[in-house]
Every structure is written in C-alpha cells, then in structure tokens.
Structure to design on (946 residues):
C-alpha cells in the first residue's frame, strides 16, 4: 500500500508540471502582445511598458516559466493587472465560497443519490423504480445553468421562497446546491442501483440469508457496504467535477466564487488572475483524484478476490 | 514470412465474437423502446436542423432569426409567435429552428475531431504499451486535470469566442476521454486468445490493429461517441451562456439563454424554450447511447 | 427404520421467465432419516441445488415453489411464517455452498460473520460470541483461531474459507446440514479433508446431512442413501450399497460407467452420449430417453418412480410389465466393464 501511494505521488510530478506549463502558456498563446491586450489597445506606451516590466515579459520564455513555477509553489501568482492587488488575495476568499458550494452540493448529491438508488434497487421494476430512472435521465440531460434559471424563475421569482441570487444566507443556499448537484445525484442514484443489483446476486448474500439474517439487515449490512465501493469513487469524482461545474452555477446565481472570478477576469483580460484561479482548481482536482484513487484501492483490497 | 492463410482468417472471423453478434445486436436494439424513441427524435431533429440551416441561409420561408421588431418585444407564446419573442422582438421559435444546426453541428464536429485524435492515441498506447503508453497517457492525465468545462473555457479565453473556437476547445477537452476508453478496450482485446493466435501466425501489427483490434473496440467507441455528443452540446451551450462561446446575434441556444436571463422577471419564456430544446436533444442522445450500450453488451443490463 | 427428520413430498419449484414455466424441480419426493446422510447426485442443472434452496425457502424471483410439501420435524416449511423460517435457517437447518471463494462477505472479518449467527439465534453479545466463534474455528481445524478471527476472507485460502463456512453453518449445532457441492471448488487433497471433517462433526453433533454433488466418489465416501436426479426428477433412490452394487436406471449406470474406478481394471471410460436437454426442449416422456441406449416406444410416456425387489426406487419402463423393448436387457453388466 505504501509503495502504491509513493508511486502514485511520483506520477503526480509530471502531471503537475504539465498543468503548470499549460496554464503558463495561456497568456503566451494569445495572439498579440499580452501586455497590450491587458492594458487595452488605446493605452499609452508607458502603461504597456510598465506591465511588460512587472510581468517580466521581456525575459526568455523558459526563465519566465521557471519564475512562474517557483512563485506558484509559494502561492504567489503575481498581481492583478486591474487593481494591482496580489492574485492570491483575489483567489482565497473566492475559493472558500466555491469550496462551500462544492461541499454542500456533494452532500446533497450523496444523500439524495444513495437513497434513491437503494430504494430503486430493492424495488426493481416497480413503478417507483421506473419513474426514478426516467427522472434521473432528465437530471443527466439538463444543463445545470438552465436548471438554475428555472429554479430562480419558480422558487425565487414566482413563489418568493428563496433569494434569486447571492450566497451565504440560508435562503440563498438551496437553489444553487440543487442546480449544481442534480446531475450528480442522478449519476449516483444510477450507480448505486446497478451496484446494489449486482451485489444482491452475489453468493455471500445467499450465505447471509441462509444464516437466518433479516432481509433488512441483508440489504443494509451485507449488501450496502459492498455496493458502496464503486460508488465511493464516483462520489469523489463528482466532488472534483463540481469544482469545474460551479463556474456556470456561480454565474447564474451571481455567487462571488472562483468560477465567477475566472469569467470576469477572462472578460477583462486579467491574465494573472485567470492563471492563478485555473491553476488552483486544477491542482485541487488532481489531489481529489489522488485521494479517490487511494481510498478505492484501500476499500477494494478486501473485495478483489484474486 | 508466414502470413495467415485465407482459411485461418476465415476461422478467426468465426471465432471473433463481435462479427457474428451483429444480428442479435439489431434485434436487441429494436426491442429497446427508450432507445428507439431517442433514435427517432434524433432522426427528426437531423432533418429539421437541415431545413433550419437552409432556411436561415437561403430564406425558404422568408422568416429571419435576426429581424427585430421592437413593437412586439418580450411577447409570450401566441399563434403568431409560437415560442414568443425576445427583448428585441425576434421570434424565438424561428431562432431555435435556425440555431439547431449550430448546436447539433458543434456537438457532432467536436466529438468527431476528438475521436479522430483520441482513438489512434488510445490504440497506440494500448497496443504498444511501455514508454509510448506512459507518455501518451501522462499527457492525457494533464488534460484531464481540468474538470468539466474548465479546459474548454481556458482554451476559448485564449482563442476568443466563436463557433469554430468553441468546437476546437471542446474537442481538445474530449480527446483524453476517447484515448482512455480506447486504450482500455485495446488492452482487453489484445489479451484475447485469438489475437495471440494471429500474432503467432506472423501477422503484421497494422493488419492486427485494423482487422482485429479495431472491429472489437468499435462498440465502446460508438457508444461513447453517442454519449459524448450529448456532453459536447451541454459544454458548448455552457460556454455560450457565459458569453465566451458562440457570439450573438447567432441564434445558438446557450447564447439565447444568456440573452434571456436579464428578462426573467418580465418574460420567462425566453429562457424556457431554448433550455427545453437542449434537454430534449441531450436526452435523445443519452437514451440512444444507453440503448446502444445495452444492445452491444446484454450482460451489462439488469 | 429410524425416524425421518425431513420428509419432502412431490416438491415442485419452477422459474417463470418471459411467460414460460421452467420446471427446475418437478415432483421430488425424498426422506432424510435422522442422523444419516442422504446424497443427491446429478449433473448441473438437474435441480439438486434448487431442491436444497427450496428446503430453506431461499428461492428468489423469478423462481417459486409451486407445489408439494416439506415436512421438517413435523413442521410444514412451505407455509411457515417468514420470522419462524429465519429462526430455522442457520439454527436448525444450515447450508454450505459450493463457492468458498465468494460465499463469505468480503467486507467483514471472519469473526464478525461468525458472531452474527450467535447474535441472531442465541442473542449472544460480542464477547461471548467471540469465545464461541473461536471454539468453532478450532473445531473445524483452523490453526490459531484467535488470530484468524480478525482476518478478512481475502487473507484465507480456499480450503480455509470452506472450513470457515462449515464453522458458520455448524455454529448453532443444526439438526440438518445441507452441503451443496462443498468440495467441488477445492483441490483434491483438500477435498477429502473437508469431507472427513463434515463426517466427524456429524457424529459429534449428531446431525443429519444432505450431501449434494455431481461426484459419485463423494457419495460413496460419505452417504447412507442416494437419490439420483435428472432434469428435475428423481430417477433412482436406494441405499448406497444397493446403488453401487446393483444400479438399475440407465442414467445411474451411465454415471457409474463414466467414473474411473480403482477396484477394477478399465480399458476406457464410457461417457453418456448427448447432453442434458435445454429447459424448453424437455421431452414429454422419460426425460432420459433421448440419451438412453435402451430407449423404446413406451419411453415417450413418463414412467413412475416404483420400488423394485432389491430395494431401489427406479423411474424406468424397463422394470415394468409394460416394457416393449428388448426382453431381459442387461442395463448394468459388471463383467463387461471389468
């Protein structure tokens, strides 16, 4: 197990390097002089020169990259072109909001998805099961930003139950979480259902029944724990995807998270902020995947019969 | 050098489980009602989108998706405007009709491009293994480190928003997914006994890949292509919704949603109809894709 | 004649698939005398495992017991309450399954799984349960049971796991043990150890056993009585000596002839020709007729299971007055096989 973790950590090195190279290239692949783009076409020469100077744009590319990498490792992503405030100070409060949204959405996804999936599996082919599978298909096919708009329309504008935008107050939390989490809940429900159906047919379930174990105990003690193993992986992946998916949700609900920061900064050509924010999300995602991998390995060790 | 004789090739084809399973495949697919519904919706949309494209560019019906009519702006659905009008008085139904080929086109093209690049990479990685595998898959891992639409977003932020750039951005994001799936299937197929047998008979790599590996990995490729078109449509709509994709006044559905979000208090229908259309298209691809998967591999059902 | 602990009468279990009824067990009648071992032998798909699962009322959808009675110690199992049935399972009737590799729950330790039986049936807590579990593991010959008890199934070999399965089945000292191919998945050397173990424990606890197998060698080694099953029916029933010395049904003979024997010098093994018919192609008459070397016209009708003078019950027209085939046909010829 330790060797597995060490090997997996070593594999991260090239991936992280690749990610930083890609993010670094963002600014330089843009056609034209990045300093001019950032300063604006009509900006005076002096402003452009100042930006070039500050970002070290006159250094050779590899030097620029090494500086970028070294600084990023110390969480220094430079300063915003817009307001000269360090990028890190822009990112940090926004990241916490995005993280909150992601965590709440994951909880919503897991609770709803697991419950729905288990009941569906126990009552396979029943009216409930068929209905739920149809609903989950819709859940998978809905753009989360459109679902967000519809939720605002119904529950905020027409019924007035929730606030249409923002984040932090109790009446602002639920709609974004539903909007972001629904597709994930649908995926988890389907996974749980098929995993449970698979496990229920296993020999050890028959053994438990032959021991005289109650049906409810068979389902919740003997079957569920086994069925959860593949589902755990999907839950971890969902958490990672929510980091990316929150960009749209934050835009719909006007939540000041990392996603909205990225969009605003792209529109304002504030490349250092875009780079910093994209890098933070990508690196978080890589580490979430690592944790998922390791926990799957730990869980699966007992089950893998060979 | 020994080359597999006709006879051996024939035998191998008989053993090849996929080849003889095609009849059963269509039988199973026809039995799957939800897959058929998805299929018919897609066929219908295909023809409607062609009509919409012709109408938009050659004016068959004389309607226009960009004709503004400020006296009729923000009107609800009526006999004159089936889906109502937007903030500039444009007919939303006509805009949806004229924009359909863009939505479907971006989805198809992005997936096709991703497949063209991702499938060979996956086969190379899976078939040759070793350092080639490591390099290819490590690069794929780098691309996979950007969750959801983040990579496409970053690419579009560099290239600028346009229909072509959105297509390219989504295609690049999808390459690793194709490569991963194809690599996995190639590895499995490579281990099959009959592939060993052909190798032992001295067949060249190219022949093995094209005649034996490729037919065997076609089913996961087809299934994932279908399902990926759905994802690509969602991503494209998302980018345009953020104002970073297809630019107005092009009647792309995601961009239409972006137009409508400012008028939700007065005219909810502007955001309702384009979104509903996206749901229907994506649902149709998902239904059909799921049906294909079940038909290819009946064991997975239940 | 001893008392019967289990009395099965005309048991019928069917599976309903796409509107068709597949009769997996089709009118099986059996007795298990107290303290004795009954063997049920047959090819896979002959309905022997389904019969066993029917006794425990463990037939899952789309299967269903459609008729007959199962009398266990005077109690009718086919209409006993579910709560009472759970009480019987693992406590009065236990079962060991064919696949030790997959029959233990991979996410729980051996101890957790053993303790569960004590908790359900005897209400024992963790401490007492652990003590009994260790005793049980020791009894089935698992070395250092106090360590094994905290291990997960993947840490044990196949033979060890089957011992654990046996320990689990015998935890509450059942009156009847059903062993469904307990040794099939194991190495030959382990096989005889496990059979020996079941026999020893049977004497110690004084229980009755139903031994289900496709292997006549296992039957010879462990059983007092034998039922031969073919396509959901019993075709021959006898005590073990009678069956081996004087088998009557052509199918039984076929099984014996396809078995390598060390008490004789054989030139070759004679396999039974053909294969078990698919469930939807079941012949209307004698089900073995299509594969039977002696089949005649009358075999297109279903023969009854009738007692013969040697004590065998046989389902075959040859031993009836209606037989219209070759007179005096020698179904079993010891000399010819020696």
């Amino acid at each position: 197990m330790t060797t597995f973790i060490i090997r997996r950590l070593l594999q991260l090195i090239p991936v992280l390097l690749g990610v930083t190279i890609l993010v670094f290239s963002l600014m330089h692949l843009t056609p034209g002089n990045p300093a001019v783009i950032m300063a604006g076409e009509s900006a005076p020469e002096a402003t452009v020169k100042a930006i070039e100077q500050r970002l070290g744009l006159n250094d050779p590319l590899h030097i620029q990259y090494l500086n970028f990498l070294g600084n990023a490792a110390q969480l220094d992503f430079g300063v915003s072109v817009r307001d000269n405030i360090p990028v890190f100070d822009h990112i940090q409060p926004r990241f916490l909001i995005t993280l909150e949204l992601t965590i709440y959405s994951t909880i919503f996804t897991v609770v709803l998805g697991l419950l729905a999936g288990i009941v569906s599996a126990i009552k396979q082919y029943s009216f409930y099961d068929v209905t739920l599978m149809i609903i989950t298909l819709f859940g998978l096919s809905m753009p989360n930003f459109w679902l967000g708009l519809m939720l605002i329309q119904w529950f905020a504008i027409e019924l007035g139950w929730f606030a249409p935008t923002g984040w932090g107050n109790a009446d602002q939390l639920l709609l974004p979480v539903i909007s972001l989490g629904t597709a994930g809940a649908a995926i988890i429900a389907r996974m749980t259902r098929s995993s449970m159906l698979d496990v229920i047919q296993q020999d050890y379930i028959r053994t438990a029944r032959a021991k005289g174990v109650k049906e409810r105990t068979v389902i919740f003690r003997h079957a569920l724990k086994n069925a959860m193993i593949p589902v755990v992986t999907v839950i971890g992946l969902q958490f990672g995807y929510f980091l990316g998916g929150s960009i749209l949700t934050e835009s719909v609900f006007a939540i000041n998270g990392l996603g909205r920061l990225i969009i605003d900064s792209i529109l304002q050509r504030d490349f250092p902020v875009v780079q910093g924010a994209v890098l933070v999300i990508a690196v978080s995602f890589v580490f979430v995947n690592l944790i998922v991998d390791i926990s799957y390995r730990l869980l699966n060790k007992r089950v893998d019969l060979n | 050098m020994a080359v597999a004789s006709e006879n051996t090739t024939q035998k191998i084809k008989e053993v090849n489980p996929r080849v003889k399973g095609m009849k059963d495949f269509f039988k199973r697919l026809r039995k799957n009602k939800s897959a058929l519904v998805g299929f018919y919706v897609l066929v219908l949309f295909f023809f409607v989108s062609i009509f919409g494209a012709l109408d938009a560019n050659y004016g068959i019906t004389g309607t226009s998706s960009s004709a503004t009519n400020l006296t009729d702006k923000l009107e609800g659905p009526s006999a004159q405007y089936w889906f109502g009008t937007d903030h500039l008085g444009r007919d939303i139904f006509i805009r949806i009709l004229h924009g359909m080929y863009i939505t479907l086109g971006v989805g198809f093209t992005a997936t096709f491009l991703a497949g063209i690049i991702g499938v060979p990479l996956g086969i190379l990685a899976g078939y040759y293994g070793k350092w080639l595998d490591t390099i290819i898959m490590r690069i794929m891992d780098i691309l996979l480190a950007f969750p959801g639409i983040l990579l496409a977003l970053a690419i579009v932020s560099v290239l600028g928003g346009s229909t072509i750039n959105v297509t390219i951005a989504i295609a690049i994001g999808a390459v690793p997914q194709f490569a991963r799936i194809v690599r996995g299937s190639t590895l499995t197929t490579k281990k099959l006994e009959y592939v060993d047998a052909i190798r032992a008979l001295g067949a060249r790599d190219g022949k093995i890949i094209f005649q034996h590996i490729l037919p065997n990995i076609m089913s996961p490729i087809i299934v994932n292509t279908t399902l990926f078109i759905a994802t690509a449509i969602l991503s494209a709509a998302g980018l345009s919704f953020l104002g970073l994709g297809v630019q107005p006044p092009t009647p792309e559905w995601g961009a239409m949603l972006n137009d409508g979000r400012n008028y939700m208090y007065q005219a909810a229908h502007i955001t309702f109809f384009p979104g509903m259309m996206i749901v229907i298209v994506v649902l149709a691809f998902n239904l059909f894709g799921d049906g294909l998967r079940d038909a290819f591999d009946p064991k997975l059902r239940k | 004649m001893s008392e019967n602990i289990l009395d099965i009468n005309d048991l019928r279990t069917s599976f309903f698939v796409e509107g068709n009824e597949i009769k997996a067990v089709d009118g099986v009648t059996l007795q298990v005398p107290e303290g004795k071992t009954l063997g049920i032998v047959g090819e896979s798909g002959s309905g022997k495992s389904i019969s066993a699962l029917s006794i425990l009322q463990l037939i899952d959808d789309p299967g269903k017991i459609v008729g007959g009675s199962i009398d266990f110690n005077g109690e009718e199992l086919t209409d006993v309450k579910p709560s009472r049935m759970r009480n019987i399972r693992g406590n009065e009737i236990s079962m060991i399954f064919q696949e030790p590799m997959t029959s233990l729950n991979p996410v729980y330790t051996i101890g957790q799984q053993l303790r569960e039986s004590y908790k359900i049936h005897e209400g024992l807590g963790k401490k007492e349960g652990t003590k009994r579990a260790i005793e049980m593991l020791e009894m089935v010959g698992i070395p250092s049971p106090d360590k094994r008890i905290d291990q997960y199934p993947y840490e044990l070999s196949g033979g060890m796991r089957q011992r654990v399965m046996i320990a689990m089945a015998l935890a509450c000292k059942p009156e009847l043990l059903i062993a469904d191919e307990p040794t099939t998945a194991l190495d030959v050397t382990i096989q005889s150890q496990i059979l020996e173990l079941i026999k020893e424990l049977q004497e110690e606890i004084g229980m009755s056993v139903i031994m289900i197998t496709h292997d006549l060698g296992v039957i010879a080694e462990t059983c007092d009585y034998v039922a031969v099953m073919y396509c959901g029916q019993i075709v021959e029933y006898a005590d073990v000596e009678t069956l081996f010395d004087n088998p009557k049904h052509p199918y039984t003979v076929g099984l014996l002839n396809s078995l390598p024997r060390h008490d004789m010098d054989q030139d070759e093994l004679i396999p039974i020709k053909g294969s078990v018919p698919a469930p939807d192609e079941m012949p209307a008459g004698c089900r073995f007729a299509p594969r039977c070397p002696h089949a005649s016209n009358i075999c297109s009708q279903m023969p009854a299971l009738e007692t013969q003078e040697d004590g065998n019950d046989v389902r075959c027209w040859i031993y009836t007055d209606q037989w219209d085939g070759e007179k005096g046909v020698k179904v079993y010829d010891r000399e010819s096989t020696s």
In short: Chain C touches chain A through 29 residues (CB under 8 Å). The first strand of chain C starts at residue 4 and ends at 17. Chain C has a mean pLDDT of 86.
